[in-house]
Amino acid sequence: MNFTDDQIADIGEEIIRVLKTVYDPEIPVDIYELGLIYDVQISEEADVKIIMTLTSPNCPVAESLPQEVKDKVKEVENVNEVELELTFEPTWNKDMMSEEAKFELGML
Prior knowledge:
It holds the Pfam family FeS_assembly_P. It comes from Chryseobacterium edaphi. By secondary structure, the chain is of the alpha+beta class. It has helices at residues 5-19, 31-34, 64-74, 99-104, and strands spanning 37-42, 48-52, 82-86. 33% of the residues lie in helices and 15% in strands. It has a three-stranded mixed sheet.
């Protein structure tokens, strides 16, 4: 089944809402505001591809965090398949954080 652009936009908004419930255990800010999500692609069939990174390759949750992201996104209504690609290019840095995240951490 193919979804309309509006439905895909709704699915995308719901995915972002869910991503904002996933936190980096070392920083009290969600992974979306931290800028760890590089890309969310949604096909017409609602297959989702997420490209994300971690604050460091040696992050203690390198195994569990991507799995948590995948599991939570899979629960979004109408989402079909979820593919998650972990990348360290470009390397994450503090400039990728949203203003909100910087404010939360007292960096502004």
